[in-house]
Design a protein that fits this description.
The protein is of the alpha/beta class and 635 residues long. It is built from 19 helices and 17 strands. The chain is 50% helix and 11% strand. The strands form four sheets. An eight-stranded parallel beta sheet has the order 9-8-7-6-5-10-16-17, with helices on one face. A four-stranded parallel beta sheet has the order 3-2-1-4, covered by helices on one side. Helix 10 links the parallel strand 6 and strand 7. Helix 3 runs antiparallel to helix 4, helix 12 packs parallel to helix 14 and helix 16 runs antiparallel to helix 17.
Length: 635
């Protein structure tokens, strides 16, 4: 009869934990030998991390033998980490560029999706070697010692890391790694890490927005291609307003009480307003110098009754706003609100005019004012909370929108009809339940807000703290913004001699405002590519029917599919417009997969590509005709 002790011994011999211990012990012995190059060391350490993770997932019975067992495991893992750190320090000076590049990339890393940020004195040979390992997304802070390879983002400050991380086209990154060569202070490393993580968070917001608005963005972008050639970008405004006082007008509930004071200093400050606040300004007899809109939804109701033609500066429009906004009278300047998504719209121009954004017009206005180096920068209507149970200012668009709190959540109702007509709203009279958030109040205490408004509040606070600009929160209501000095709007005096209209007119006259020929050639190239893609998708559908009957033809179908994928990769807007459909198709793909099912699913995908190609070809033809007509009308 087998004793309980022997039974326990046999169980111990077969447990996965023993295999982990043996694996780690073997790695420890290998580390002692120190005979392999650093690249192989990284592979071994990856195994160590993986096996340690497996141990952490195990449910170890509460038994005295197991306690000693886990202590032994932890001690081995600690010794391995210590030896690895020592070896890294000893080999830093003597490593080749390729070896350093291998060491910079963490194990189990997605080289095509996740960026690596390099700090300190970075030899350009190391950056190039990192690219050769397959790492596609690289951000270098400072001036690398040499000319950076193509597609490497080089930024000046730690704060710029945030925008660099969000600027990569394609799939949103999920992780980021910070690597320092040479001496980097703890404060610098912390600032870089925070900026990189904010970039990741922003990229996720972009990804969610793309999933929701992808097809709308592409449709609008296609229709706006002629307008982007006919109007100048925000780049032409350059540094024309350095040192000019500017008031940034958001549509929060507290705006209404600020309008009489704003009217008194009109003409002595630059007024940059969110489109949502224009009606309130207009009813108070105030004409904004500039107004900004960047949402892909139909925001034209924001401009109802607003004399945009009288704006001394003009409209600042995102590249994928509703095309009707580009027909509004007055000056128009465009920019890429989401560079990773809208970059393809600027291929013909050799520039990508961007404005840093934290996800809203309020944050984009602040970023623009900082880039203009205005002084001071004054915020009004920035409640970023539901002051008095209201969402927006009286007298403005959606002035009837109010908040009802219930059970830790809130609902908003009372929007204007223009809001209900938006594509994503689809006529809903009330918002879905939104989690309720409390934020510090302007005058102390707490105010009710939501996650979106609170994130904008935090973004503005961080940005203010990172800048050397004078930024004053003169909202006099709503939420408190850390890092921003609170003052009464009556404190702002402005200055004489501000000629916004004359300054803008001179800048536009000096700039190359019309790029019709370049845009026409770009559109013609897109048309050729779309026709070729459509033809390839049609061939693939025909071949799918043959492969369904004869499995030996699956190889030819696979090659056609791969070629089609390569062609689509050169047309990123097809994927962008197709994201919601792709997600649904992927879900179906894994539900009862069979050969016939796979073939039919592939055929459906090819049909969807043909549908999009036909849609985009029609839009591009319309764009070419618009540009041809504009050419005939010009002297």
């Amino acid at each position: 009869m087998t004793s309980p002790e022997r039974s326990q011994s046999r169980a111990r011999e077969t447990t996965p934990l023993d295999a982990v211990l043996r694996s780690i012990h073997g790695i420890e012995q290998w580390l002692d030998a120190r005979t392999a190059p650093i690249g192989e060391l990284r592979q071994h350490f990856a195994v160590l991390r993986s096996t340690t993770d497996k141990v952490n997932e195990q449910r170890v019975p509460n038994h005295p033998a197991n306690v000693g067992y886990m202590l032994q495991l932890g001690a081995m893992a600690w010794r391995c980490r210590e030896k690895l750190a020592r070896m890294r320090a000893e080999t830093l000076a003597s490593e080749s560029s390729d070896a350093q590049a291998i060491r910079l990339a963490p194990p189990q890393w997605d080289v095509s999706r996740d960026p690596i940020v390099l700090l300190g004195q970075i030899p350009i040979e190391v950056v190039s070697a990192l690219r050769r390992t397959g790492q596609e997304r690289i951000v270098v802070v400072g001036d690398p010692r040499g000319s950076a390879p193509p597609h490497v983002r080089v930024v000046e400050t730690y704060t710029d890391i945030r925008d660099a991380v969000t600027s990569f086209p394609g799939e949103a990154p999920e992780r980021v790694t910070i690597r320092a060569l040479g001496e980097v202070s703890a404060a610098g490393l912390g600032a870089a890490t925070a900026a990189a993580q904010e970039g990741i968070d922003t990229a996720r917001v972009y990804a969610n927005t793309v999933h929701l608005f992808g097809e709308t963005w592409v449709r609008h972008g296609m229709k706006n291609l002629p307008a982007l050639a006919l109007h100048p970008s925000v780049s032409v405004l350059g540094k024309a307003f350095v040192g000019w006082p500017i008031v940034l007008v958001a549509p929060g509930p507290s705006l209404a009480k600020q309008l009489p004071t704003l009217a008194q200093i009109q003409g002595r400050v630059v007024i940059l307003a969110a489109s949502h606040s224009l009606k309130a300004l207009s009813r108070a007899g105030i004409v904004a110098d500039f107004a900004m809109a960047l949402d892909p939804e139909d925001l034209r109701y924001h401009f109802d009754g607003v004399p945009t033609v009288l704006m001394p500066g003009g409209l600042l429009l995102g590249a994928t706003v509703n095309p009707g906004c580009y027909s509004l009278p007055g000056n128009i300047f465009h920019f890429a609100a989401n560079p990773g998504i809208e970059g393809w719209l600027y291929e013909a121009f050799g520039e990508l005019p961007t404005i840093r954004t934290g996800g809203s017009v309020a944050t984009s206005m602040l970023a623009l004012a900082l880039s203009w180096q205005c002084d001071p920068i004054v915020l009004i209507g920035h409640d970023l909370g539901f002051t008095g149970g209201r969402v927006y200012a009286r007298g403005g668009a959606d002035e009837g929108a109010t908040v009802v709190e219930s059970g830790g959540a809130l609902r908003i109702s009372g929007y204007d009809s223009g809001y209900a007509a938006m594509e994503s709203i689809a006529g809903a009279l009330e918002s879905p339940a939104i989690p309720l958030v409390k934020a510090p109040g302007y005058y102390g205490g707490q105010v009710t807000t939501c996650h979106a408004f609170n994130s904008f509040r935090q973004w503005i606070g961080r940005t203010a703290q990172e800048s050397n600009a004078r930024i004053w929160n003169c909202t006099e209501g709503g939420a408190h913004i850390d890092g921003v000095e609170q003052r009464a709007l009556s404190y702002v005096e402005g200055c004489d001699g501000l000629d916004v209209a004359g300054t803008v007119a001179a800048l536009v006259a000096q700039s190359r405002t019309c790029q019709i020929r370049a845009q026409s050639e770009y559109i013609a190239g897109l048309l050729r590519a779309l026709r070729a893609t459509r033809e390839r998708a049609t061939d693939a559908i025909r071949e799918s029917y043959r492969a369904e009957r004869d499995h030996s033809r699956s190889g030819r179908l696979g090659k056609l599919g791969q070629r089609l994928e390569r062609e689509i990769a050169a047309l990123p807007f097809i994927v962008l417009a197709n994201l919601r459909w792709i997600k649904a198709a992927d879900k179906q793909l894994f539900e009862g997969m069979t050969w016939t099912h796979a073939i039919k699913q592939a055929r459906t995908s090819y049909s969807r590509i043909i549908e999009l190609c036909d849609l985009f070809v029609g839009e591009l033809h319309n764009g070419l005709r618009t540009l041809e007509e504009a050419t005939r009308q010009r002297p």
